[in-house]
Amino acid sequence: MIRCARHGGVERIMRLSVTRVIVAAVLATAAPAFAGPSDLPTQGLESRIEFWKKAFTQFGEDDVIIHDRMRVNLIYDVATRADQAEKIAAVRQALDEIRDNLETPENLSVPAQQIHSAILAEGVPLTAVSIAELRDNVHTQAGVKERFRQGIIRSGRYAEVFQEIFEKQGVPAEIALLPLVESSFENRARSNAGAAGIWQFTRGTGRLYLNVNRKLDERLDPARATRAAARLLHDNYNALGSWPLAITAYNHGRAGMLRAQSEAGPEITNIIEQYRGPQFGYASMNFYCEFLAAVEVYNNSEQYFGQLALEQPPGKRSVAPVLTRVAAKTSAKGRVQTAKTTASDRYKVRKGDTLTDIAQRFGLTVRELMDSNNLRNSVIYAGQILLVK
Fold it and tell me: What value does the CA radius of gyration of the chain take, rounded to a whole number of Å?
């Protein structure tokens, strides 16, 4: 699996996306790109999913989320690399203050009061034991907004083919989005553990399904690697009996998940909450929830990132489609059709651009520009694609 730098030695953060449907429909009756089926349950995981949605969409590469390792959505503060150590120390100091004032919370300082409220909001009982656990579990997670956005854009190159391969192998098409949290659909991605390619096969696992030797490494062949990933996931499912466990086994290993299943039962929520195998750490316990969050953000990408021009599959000369709910329609067969734009209709934001500058350049008002791009405010960033016609 690819490991993105996480602060405090924390590893791995991404895995990415696919889909035959490149546009999420604006009509309420139109299905989203990937409507999560019942065999990919979210019940009991909502708080974890919400945390990963924040990591994917709200926090960027310069942000360090200071939170609880087990109750991941219990967020204490957000730091930068420069002040990370200082802010972690301040969080632990606030927790000590809360412990020392369990009977007199009115004596807490303002920072301690804020953390006190956050803990209560997560339903954590305030006792000396629970505070000690929270103190031990202070954890950091890097934001990956920019990386996730690029992963969505890159997914357009592979989406349709990957989905077809998964369907033929009997694997839910939604799971073809797993590279959003593995490699961000970057075929050149390599991890410190030696995993390579879009699907981040290690050499050992790769050799079970692919040719991996000095002369040929099929992990770097997107189509072959995708067929191998589908087979691996299907084998995981046959062994474990559910897709949540099969997906988690993609990270933790089939044997590891069989041990987890034997100790905590077949429900992914129970495994996350109860299983404490020596190798079942932060990355493994969050892998399935990261994936669910990635699917949800992908299906609503315009809400988080505005309109995105996706890369095209090799050999196609048409203009990259735009992920958008605007002007999408459903065909007679029920598939969402894409509204396409020409190159002259789009403008790539440059460093220093403002909405006012761009609007004047193309003879628009700022309001017209915001409306046509579904912008909630005037914040734009370099590299963003805007509709200008």
Answer: 22
